[in-house]
Design goal:
The protein is of the alpha+beta class. It contains 3 helices and 4 strands. 29% of the residues lie in helices and 13% in strands.
Length: 106
Amino acid sequence: MQTPGSNGRMQASRTPPHARILGIGSFVPPQIRSNAELERMVETSDEWITERTGIRQRHIAPDGMVTSDMAAEAAKRALEAAGLTAQDLDMIIVGTVTGDMPMPAT
């Protein structure tokens, strides 16, 4: 990090920036699809899926719900857990490989 020096030129700060995690939040869509339901859709079985993946069910987002909608709900829950409001934040950093749309990138 750089700060203005006494001579007006930028210089490296000796104090590192402080970042803290004060709350965490998560969100999954309420609709659940079990392996038994998948058995009716494709040629597979609950046992085959479970043995290979350990997955017995998955949460399914309804039409129109995108990654940022779910991230916003998780963020609200994190703020609530921390006892903060959105106005208390300086920055939000998000990293994902599952954006709302592949093109244009979101």
